[in-house]
Amino acid sequence: MNLTHINDQGRAKMVDVSSKDETERSAAAVGHVFMKSETLNRIKDGSIKKGDVLAVAQVAGIMAAKNTSNIIPMCHPIFISGCDIEFSMNFDDNSIKIKSTVKNTGQTGVEMEALTAVSAAALTIYDMCKAIDRGMVVKDIMLMKKSGGKSGVFERKIK
């Protein structure tokens, strides 16, 4: 398989998508932030001094998805038609699972936007809680599903 982001001189390039058809595309990504039980309880109770952690993380994730091409050098600036961020708290392992879903109709997919949204939301959780828990761990950020485009559907199988 040839890498499409490499030119004839072996240097990075932005892929030319001008000949691709516009199709409906979507991508979903997940990630986790692990923390102390006290930190998770304070997020749940809304007692973090910086404010509503998940509300701020949600906005950060959406903003990051919209600005992915400004962060990841070879990403195309694209119009995003939808972006959602969901959080679920797990008190068994003291974690917050972050899921992003991004959609568009265009010539290139939204996988990087979904991954960037999860990353920014996770880092925002860390930033807002670091005063009480510098040992938090951001982990397992991955693409779960993508659809649309010539390559079709990808869906991660987790046992």
From TrEMBL:
The entry's keywords: Lyase, Molybdenum cofactor biosynthesis
Positions contributing to substrate binding: M74, C75, H76, M112, E113
EC numbers: 4.6.1.17
PANTHER family, per the entry: CYCLIC PYRANOPTERIN MONOPHOSPHATE SYNTHASE, MOLYBDOPTERIN COFACTOR SYNTHESIS PROTEIN A
Family: Belongs to the MoaC family.
Purpose: Catalyzes the conversion of (8S)-3',8-cyclo-7,8-dihydroguanosine 5'-triphosphate to cyclic pyranopterin monophosphate (cPMP).
Protein name: Cyclic pyranopterin monophosphate synthase
Organism: Clostridium tyrobutyricum DIVETGP
